Amino acid sequence: MFNTEFNEIAENPSLDLYPSHLQTQINELNGWIYSGINNGAAKQLYEALDKCEEILRKQRYLCGNSLTEADVRLFVTLIRFDEVYAVHFKCNKKLLREYPNLFNYTKDLFQIPGMSSTVNMEHIKKHYYGSHPSINPFGIIPLGPNIDYLSPHDRDRFAS
Q1: How would you label 44-67 residue by residue, b for 16+ Cβ within 10 Å and e otherwise?
Q2: How many whole angstroms separate alpha carbon 36 and alpha carbon 42?
Q3: I want to staple 36 with a disulfide (CB 3.0 to 4.6 A). Which of 7, 40, 84, 119 is the partner?
Q4: CDD domains from the entry (predicted)?
C-alpha cells in the first residue's frame, strides 16, 4: 500500500520499493526480520543480526543491488539500536557498530537523500526512555553515544 497509494503526493512517485520480481524475496525477508529483529527476544535478535551481517557482506542491500521495502523496514530498527535498544532493552551483547557490514549499511541508507530527515534521534530517545516507566522509572535519557551516520561507509564497493 505505501509503495503506490500515495504516489500522487510523493516527491518521487517512480520509486518502487516493492517491485513485482522481488516481492517473494521481500516478503520472506520481512517475515524473519520482523520476528527476529523488530520483535525478537535476545537469542533470535542476534541470530537475525548475524544473518543480515552475512547477507550484507556479499551485496549492498538485502535483495542485491536494489533498495527495497525490506531495507527500509530493517533501517528503522538499526538506526535506533545503539542509541536506544542496547541500553533501554538491554540488547548489549553486540552493538551495531561491531557489525561492520550492518553498520556501514545503516550509514549508507541514512545518507540516501531524504532519509536522514526521517530520523530525529533526540525525539526517538525521549520517546523510548520516557514512555516505559517499568523499564526506566525515572525517565533518564543517556547522553550518548551520538553516532555519526554521515561518516564514510564502504557500501560503494558493490556499485556496478
Answers
A1: ebbebbeebbebbeeebbbbeebb
A2: 9
A3: 40
A4: GST_C_Omega_like
